[in-house]
# Entry
Amino acid sequence: MISLYDIMEASNGQPFGEPAAHIFTDFCFDSRSAGEAQLFVTLKTDRGDTHQYIREAVERGVLGVLCTRPPDFDTEGISVVIVRDTEAALMAWSHFVLGKLGTKVIAVTGSSGKSAAVQAISSVLATRYKVHTGTQDFSGPLSVPASLAKLAPEHKFLVLELGTTQPGEMAEMVQAAKPEVGVITHIGHAHTNRFSSLEQIVEEKSALVKYLSPNDLVVLNYDDDYVLEMASESRAHAVTVGMDRFGADLMAYNVVVGQTKTGFDLRYGSERFVGRWTPWLGKHLLYNVLSALAVGLHFSVPLDEALKAITDLAPLPGRMNPLPGENKSLVIDDTYNANPESTMAALDWLQAVAEEGNRVVFIMGDMDHLGDYSQQGHRNVGRRAAEFAHLIVTAGTDAALVGRAALDEGMERRQVRMAYNVQDVVAAFKTDYTLGENDIVLVKGGAATHMELVVQELLADENDRALLPRQGLVAETASHVQATRPSWVELDMEALAGNVRAIKDIIGDAVALMAVVKADAYGHGAVAVARTAMLNGAEYLAVSSMNEALELRDAGIEAPILVMSYTPTYFVRQAIRLDVTLTLYDLDLARAYERIARDTGEKLRIHAKVDTGMGRLGVLPEDAMPFFRHLAVMHHLEVEGLYTHFSMAADDPDYTAEQVKILKGVIKPLRAGGFNFKYIHAANSAATLASKANHFEMVRVGLALYGLSPSENVPVPPEFRPVMSWKTVIAQVKTLPPGHPVGYGNTYRTRGEERIAIVPVGYADGFRHSPEHWGKVLVHGQFVPVVGRVSMEKTAINVTDLSDVAIGDEVVLLGRQGDAQITADDIANQLGTINYEVVTTILPRVPRH
Ligand SMILES: *Cc1c(COP(=O)(O)O)cnc(C)c1O
# Structure
């Protein structure tokens, strides 16, 4: 329960206007999930100040607002408290409330297993006391006040998870929470991106250990050296729990890892308890159970009573939770979160329980927040899984490294599938990898990957969906992507998958789709786009050069690839070795290719190109017959296809029809002369959308894959969605006096007093300087103008018309924000170019997520 007066007293807050409600049911940190009678608290976040959302929260029924400056609308009927720093105010309130109620606090920290430990401890203490369990929806200091919102005087204990995402938070949290017991589960790679090393993580966690006083208790994992070392830093009474090494105060041995429970014997001093068990799966969760026994002992819960309580532990959503899967398979939902250690632990379990006759399936999504350790962490997981898994399916760019590593370890191609979104993973199980009775399936991934959505689709019973983690919004906002640069490109791979399927619907089953992924898939990232396109029905890939083909082969993509442009002869051997198809349109080049192919003793696959009126690459129609007669005797060239390219498909259907006629005029005599082609193809996106007459056996689609329209005359149908957004954040906001210059050359001067914001993006990112610049961008869902010249990596925008713009607020350069949108076509019009150029000229140094 949250009282207005407690808040004001603890934080020295000032009421703004007449206070109305005095009591609130809960805190609200996200206006989208605001509920009746809550207290909305504005926050500074990575992406901005949430002051701008007060109105929305009030509209949704909150009765109070804690903020740093008065809202700019009428707040009658709402209690508003102004403080200097809302987070500090809530921390002070936590300290105050815990002192007032005298609740004993048990704090759990570690890199993984925290919420399991919290759950186990609560269950053990609940055998004798009234216990309140803190929130597990998010990490960081605010989890402390959030955990107290529903604390009542009758609660003797509060069991709290202290998760840190960056240095310094632990000290802040222990000051507010005043724990009497500290439990350290394990140290590993979680949130490594914000910490410089594992040692720094240890130091952060040890703030809890150091805080405890001599009458307090610290519970340490005896099998984890990092954790064990903390014993020397604490004045509190230390109890160790362990399994692997002899010497822990509470030691489980004879551990039996099973598919439905974990059995063990327990030693505590001279006491022995044999044949005990818990329904939680895996040795790693058993540590948390042991910690709970240790805490219980400290508060006089006898061991046999506590051991009984842990046989009743409720399953933890998303943590090694066994659920009945389709066709009597067993699905283990471990999707709550993932780091390399917790994933290895889950794999240990999987290997231990798999029996002869089981098909072992491992479905893995990206692990987030690993920083520099990401590559190695993902690869290690792949290597480990390859030791025993029969099938590995990955979701996401980082998780693809799991798949790569497994292939490198010698798993076969058909045993490894790399996808880029949840839908494609699910689709794979609907078609190629249908689950069966003997399947045991482990699903794991970082919170941001939302692998629970995969589990959801594999369940036998829809009602079990209620047992999955992350049903609410809060967790989603807490786990947003953290960009490695202040400007980043977001790619919606689900939109891409949808676009590919929409093209397949248009062309029908008889026509093949060649996905054009040249120029790094028009700036969208060739490997991820190629994989997603193939998984959604494309049959061929097209690039513009051998090195682009090489990148795809390097990533393990085995689909056929056509190089659509000139390939120098020195690449021919590589083309043969990598099974890449080349384009031919010249006799001398054909002879040179043939000679090299003959030397290697292998065949080179080619598509011949005819120029039917574009005046670019290709043999002229009148030269086609003699050209093919020569090709016919070059026995090391396998002519698989013949193609041409349209120059007016986006504008003039008559001209395209003319080109089609010319193409047919070329094909007819060739056919009569005995030449046959597996693929004849001509249509790009525009021609594909414009008419079936252009399709032939295959279409070569680029632009439309990315959700963009070839022209106003030939738009993509409404179900196509743009794949790319480009975003940045505000770096500074200031008020300039009238007549003040802005940017190089003083080309802009403020007209009156103006609010100018600086964004950290410039022409070195591809945010164009001249002859025209972008013109406008989106902030708070509104268009605001770019002012002055664009610098190499900074740009000024005029935010005078917006209230409350702050450092960190999101700025959209391309894409949607709220109800407003800047499309690639808008920018193309502004810059005097085409949408193709807009997306392909965002430079590679801008990270893609
Ligand atoms: C780029 C390209 C395409 C794809 O064109 P879109 O308009 O992006 O669909 C097709 N064929 C050739 C030869 C190309 O160079």
The first strand starts at residue 2 and ends at 3. The radius of gyration is 31 Å. Residues 653-672 form the longest helix (20 residues).
